[in-house]
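ugh ok fine here u go
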Amino acid sequence: MTPNAATSNPPMTETIDSTNAAASTLFLGQNGEWWDFWLIASVLFAALAAIAIGVTTAGAIVSHKREAAAAEEALERYKLNTEGKISDSTARAAEANARALEAKLELEKFKLDRSLTDDQKSRIVQKLKPFAGQEYVLSVSTDQEALRFTRISLAPVFVAAGWIKRPPKGTISIPEIDAAVNVAGEPGVRIQIALTKSDDVKMRELVSIVAAAFVAEGIDAAPAGTPDMNDTPAIVQIRIGSKPR
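structure:
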């Protein structure tokens, strides 16, 4: 019996040894094939992760660049719009200031008396001298500016041109300048002749030339006819009204 038992022991020992040998080749209880599988799987996963990182990185960079470009474009549009509004506002303000200044200058100009410089008087005199000896009368508004203008600027012109001044008709007169009161009250200067002489070509030419001489120097003047001179039709009447507004 013992020999038989001895002969059966060796196979069991060999099995145990084989099992131990196989166990010594494992790592964490897994063989090489298992680890090969997961190695390959890990490599694939790492590759996919790298691709994902590359794609997301590129996406982030491109998106930020586009956002920056869009923001810069929006800023430029804002600047242009703002500059345009500021420019329009500045232009409107400048235009309003110009209008206000012009209105102020016009007001100041209106406040000033009408006047003629020595040169202006000289030019008018040269135009009136060909009619030296022509009789005339003055009719002046009681407006103080009209009185000053007549005394300082207008009356001396006719004297220098050799015209003959006649005293005013009627009892209402202005002794200071030996003129009648301009009861018509029409503004500006009117160079008038009697209506009975309105068909006289020379008289019409005369009043037109006198009026034009004053207009050329910036004085509002015009020729006209009047019915109150029938008794002295050949006399020219110079009516000086207030300064036109």
